[in-house]
UniProtKB/TrEMBL annotation, chain A:
GO terms for cellular component: plasma membrane. The chain crosses the membrane at residues 6-21, 28-50, 70-91. This is Na+/H+ antiporter subunit C. Belongs to the CPA3 antiporters (TC 2.A.63) subunit C family. It is a multi-pass membrane protein. It comes from the Bacteria.
Automatic annotation (TrEMBL), chain B:
GO terms for biological process: ATP synthesis coupled electron transport. It comes from Halomonas urumqiensis. Keywords: Cell membrane, Membrane, Transmembrane, Transmembrane helix. This is Monovalent cation/H+ antiporter subunit D. It comes from the Bacteria. GO terms for molecular function: NADH dehydrogenase (ubiquinone) activity.
Length: 114, 507
């Protein structure tokens, strides 16, 4: 399970990073979203992966570390708010500048194409 | 009440912000009154906190009485008290300035301003790494909205860069915190320091990776060389009171570096001790050089001040890079000076821009200023202060930083720091002579409101005051640096604090 989990997180991060480095705002927003998913998965795994364990310490049985789950919840909420904000910001930038390039203008040599 | 003093710098702006949000429309007078009163109270609380911390006692405050290391704690020591007071003083100047009319150019200025203060104060006071992330997000969210206050193309464009970079930074922050939690099993900074000391050697690599990822995040906030490109445009585009408040934002990054690496990765961390120093030292020198070039190249007064912020960041980081008690003490003195003076210069740039009409803050020939004498006088005070010329506080701060350099550090730091100071002097005198002497036509426009004058004088007046009170202030910063160099007391206080009683009695 660990390797599957690690590969998933890695692929998500790679895709997120690639999209974040694009020249237009929409791929950048999607990239940031993917990146935050990857980070959430990563955080979740930091307490060690436990299957079939309660998130409470009750006796000597197996239990899952409850702290990463609480952290992930916080991170999800914050990430969600940020995504909403950045979508609105990208739309405002699009309407103010007349195009959706992150720098607000197209490069003439075509370098900044998405 | 007195034992809850530590939590007030977070709770008070939160409550004030909620009150300000309630009345959406109109009643500007009431809103301004609430906002200014809350900020002024923050200054008083800051003074009380400094008085409490000055004795050297480290106070913990367990939120909801959940006991550390499991619950979240706030920590008050000399450094956090100083930073909270500094935030209050800076914010008071900015908020009074905004009350002259800047706050009505968009909605909810005062509410957002208060929440930003809450985030900043929280980041200064927290003793928990994940909580630091949460407060970073609070202050960032408020700053995104404040940066956009009033709208306009330049603001939206620079916001896109600022927001995207900081969102990526937040992701990195979480990765760093996650790695450190995975390796040590705790998020409390003092507890983490204890666990690092007894960590098996095979986890050292993991901890090192986490620590350096965090350094990238703090470097982004503090605007170190490869990560500063968002700053000049964002600060130059922000509304004046917001730009003034942002003067403390880079210092949040500096504070985080100081706090995390002195407490968690202090001497007790063994092989991992001070792992950030060599990195910061070289990057700080590079930042200084790049900022010096930027200062000379700036063609707009606001952009010029933004690059001066970068100069100060480079100087402060050089202090961290040297790492001795004297260097940290010097950098703390310089930090107080630079935060207040650059904040004041952002406000002053707005006044100059308004009186010059169409030419604005661009460094070109324009109309003469109606109140040119006063503005030029204030500009002179601010410029002398920020460029580091005697008799203002900048010179004193710079001398302290330079005096703390040892051996080969002198050979690197002195020429670079002095050359950057020269660049700043040249750029500022060129800017001043263009703005105030090269003019044509008649002065127009109205006299500036008294509130704006107050804001500028409040912040720039700090510079001569810092020189007059240099004795007590350097005494305090030296004590602070000594406290930072000996984190054992802080760790001790966490586990032996009288409040950690099983019966749950609140302190």
């Amino acid at each position: 399970m660990e390797s599957l989990y690690a590969i998933t997180t890695g692929v998500l991060t790679a895709c997120g990073l690639y999209l974040t480095l694009r020249g237009r705002t929409f791929p950048v927003v999607v990239g940031l979203t993917l990146l935050s998913y990857a980070v959430n998965l990563f955080l979740f795994s930091m307490g060690g992966l436990t299957t079939d364990g309660a998130a409470i310490l009750d006796g000597p049985g197996t239990y899952a570390d409850p702290l990463p789950q609480a952290l992930v919840l916080t991170a999800i909420v914050i990430g969600f708010a940020m995504t909403a904000f950045v979508v609105i910001l990208a739309m405002r930038a699009r309407s103010e500048a007349g195009n959706d390039h992150v720098d607000g203008r197209k490069r003439e040599d075509g370098e900044g194409r998405a | 009440m007195i034992q809850h003093l530590i939590v007030l710098p977070v709770v008070l702006p939160l409550v004030a912000g909620i009150l300000l949000l309630r009345s959406r429309q109109g009643v500007t007078r009431t809103k301004r009154l609430i906002s200014v009163a809350s900020t002024a109270l923050l200054v008083l609380i800051g003074i009380a906190l400094v008085a409490k911390a000055a004795g050297g006692e480290v106070t913990y405050y367990a939120l909801g009485d959940w006991q550390p290391p499991f619950g979240i704690v706030l920590v008050l020591d000399r450094l956090s008290a100083l930073m909270v007071l500094l935030t209050g003083v800076l914010a008071l100047g900015a908020v009074v300035f905004a009350c002259a009319g800047d706050d009505e150019k968009g909605s909810n200025f005062h509410g957002l301003f208060q929440w930003q203060l809450m985030g900043i104060n929280g980041a200064f006071l927290t003793g928990d790494l994940f909580n630091l992330f949460v407060f970073f997000e609070v202050l960032l969210l408020a700053s995104y909205a404040l940066l956009l206050h009033g709208g306009g193309k330049a603001r939206i464009q620079s916001s896109v860069h600022y927001v995207v970079l900081n969102l990526a930074g937040s992701s990195l922050f979480l990765i760093g915190v996650g790695i450190l939690y995975g390796a040590t099993g705790t998020l409390n900074m003092a507890d983490m320091a204890v666990r690092l000391a007894e960590l098996p050697a095979e986890r050292d690599g993991l901890v090192k990776a986490g620590a350096l990822i965090l350094l990238v995040v703090f470097g982004l906030k503090a605007a170190i060389l490869p990560l500063y490109f968002w700053l000049p445009r964002a600060y130059a585009a922000a509304p004046a009171p917001v730009a003034a408040l942002f003067a403390i934002m880079t210092k949040v990054g500096i504070y985080s570096i100081l706090r995390v690496y002195s407490l968690v990765f202090g001497e007790s961390a063994g092989g991992l001790a001070n792992l950030e120093q060599a990195w910061i030292w070289w990057f700080s020198l590079a930042t200084l050089i790049a900022a010096g070039v930027g200062v000379l190249a700036a063609r707009d007064l606001r952009l010029l001040v933004a690059y001066l912020v970068l100069v100060s960041v480079g100087t402060l980081l050089a202090g961290i890079g040297m790492g001795s008690v004297e260097a940290v003490s010097a950098l703390l003195y310089y930090l107080i000076h630079t935060t207040l003076v650059t904040g004041g210069l952002f406000l002053l740039a707005e006044l100059i821009g308004v009186q010059r009409g169409k030419a604005g803050t661009r460094l070109v020939k324009g109309r003469p200023l109606k109140q040119g004498g006063w503005l030029a006088g204030l500009f002179f005070v601010g410029a002398v202060g920020v460029a580091g010329l005697p008799p203002m506080s900048g010179a004193l701060g710079k001398v302290l930083v330079m005096a703390s350099a040892e051996g080969s550090q002198q050979a690197w730091l002195w020429p670079i720091l002095l050359a950057t100071g020269l660049a700043a002097t040249v750029a500022l005198s060129r800017a001043g002579s263009t703005l105030f002497w090269r003019s044509q036509g008649d002065a127009m426009g109205e006299a500036l409101p008294r509130r704006q004058w107050f804001g500028v004088m409040w912040l720039l007046g700090a510079s001569p005051l810092l020189v007059l009170l240099a004795g007590p202030i350097t005494g305090y910063t030296l004590a602070t640096a000594e406290q930072l160099a000996n984190p054992e007391a802080m760790i001790h206080a966490l586990f032996d604090a009288p409040m950690i009683k099983v019966d749950g009695a609140t302190p």
